[in-house]
Amino acid sequence: MKKYIDQNINEIKDNLQLVFHELNVIIEAISNDDLAKTVADVTRSISEPFMFVIVGEVKAGKSSFINALLESEKEICKVAASPMTDTIQQITYGPEGVEIINPFLKKIYQPVEILKEISIVDTPGTNTIVSHHQEITERFIPASDLIVFVFEAKNPYRQSSWEFFDFIHSEWHKKIIFILQQKDLLNFEDLNTNINGVKIHAEKKGIHNANVFAVSAKQELEGNKNESGFLELRKYLQDNITGGKTPYLKLLSSINSGQQIMLKISKGILDRKKQYELDVEFREEIRQTLDQQESKSLKQVNNLIENLLNSYDKVTLTKINELNDGLAIIPMFKRSFSSMIGSSKSVKDWLSEIQDKLEKELNKNLKDKLQEGVVEIAESIQNMGKIVDLKIKNSKTILKDDHEIFSDIAEKRANVLKDLQETFSSFLSRSENYYDENIMGNNNITPNLAAGGGIAIVGVILTFVTNLAVFDITGGILTATGLIFAGFSIGLKRRKIVTSVKQEIHGGRERIEEEISEKLKNYISRIKFKIDENFDRFDNLLIKEQKSLEVIINKENDIIEKLSQYEADINAIIQ
Length: 575
Hints:
- By secondary structure, the protein is an alpha/beta fold.
- The chain folds into 2 domains: 2-267 and 559-574, 3-Layer(aba) Sandwich (Rossmann fold), CATH 3.40.50; 268-550, no CATH class.
- It contains 18 helices and 8 strands.
- It has helices at 2-30, 33-45, 62-69, 133-139, 159-172, 188-204, 217-221, 225-228, 230-242, 246-326, 329-340, 347-393, 407-429, 437-440, 446-449, 457-486, 494-533, 536-574; strands at residues 50-56, 88-93, 97-102, 105-110, 118-122, 146-152, 176-181, 212-214.
- It has an 8-stranded mixed sheet with strand order 3-4-2-5-1-6-7-8, sandwiched between helices.
- Helix 10 (246-326) runs antiparallel to helix 18 (536-574) and helix 12 packs antiparallel against helix 16.
């Protein structure tokens, strides 16, 4: 039978070790050193004896209680008038000796029979080692199997002990029993009052039907075993812990620790997942903002082009009509005759005058429209940058750098976000970020760049580009028109001249529509792209975070399921 039990225990131990190995994979992904130490301690404790951790205030009689519980003829834990336990002492089975682990921990080895099943951890008083509570918690509470709270029987209500109880119970949900030590100092009535008081206090804090034992180590060590209270305590331990159940209870305790660790991690994962979702939402808002502002700017370009073309059509139609009327035979005859007697302009002068007026009216009308349209486009592009800047500053953070589990991840994210804010603010303030060789060509507008920094320069650039484009296009039309006039015999070829001029003007119209539209739209798209480039590091963070969360969440579900299954298996065996 024992062979079967040992085989069963070893199989569960091996399975549990594998689960904790998977838990370590999560811890590595989390990069939380404190939690890594805790998991390592719990993993190591799976193969160690059932561990009692004794806690309580100074002078509550913890050391005397341990000596009496171990039924040792010698004083294993020193007892003195002043506090003796200034370090954590782990008492375990082995040849007699002491091993110093670190300044706060030493191991005491004793060849006491009960220590083959259990080990006992004696801790300093809860009211004297506040600065080292973390050491107790990290090293022993998660890996412990039974917490023994020792109180002075005459005053079991001291605040420091119950505060430590709150921490242990809320964090780790360990099995707890309460000891009222030095019961020989109280009468029966007062002792019962305090026993009930502890039970009521524990009930309020979530422990129902608390196990409270009143003992006197003094009476036990003096041989007064019937009065000492240790008989009742040992019977409870025998029935519930040391009576063959210790190996299974040890595994249940380890499973409980794993479940509490996973609970902490799961809560942290929820925060981390929520932060990731908020970051993805924030990034999508940035993309939507850029798309919306780009669409708005492109629509303004279309409106600008439409207004330009309307003005262009109006001016050129007037001049075409004037040219058509003036090239008729009778007006041409009158103008030729009058010019011969010096009473009016020659045909050549008249054509030059039409060209000059066309140039002036086109440039005036188009530049006015350009100025009005460019202001709107520039404002739209500037808003693109300003809105993005505002959204970066208002991005939501719920994963703080003091997060219990994911403080390292939170800090990395905070650094990336801070870098994004600083980089983008710098981007907005630097005018060279808005200069674009693709649309500026070899034209030098460096003096104009000095007129403003950052996004304020957009208007300067757009005005320069559009004015330059209009000048090139209208100048090209006029030059070509002049060549047409020079190549025809006036009057007799009126229709051909007007048709050629119309074709040239139509070509100019297409150039305005194509070149200005293309240059402005490309410029807007490139500015949008440059703004979006600032988010490259943040995007890489999101990609890595997505992958990390997928790994953690998959392993989280698997570990929780396996721990629950092993817990059910063990409970089925011992019940």
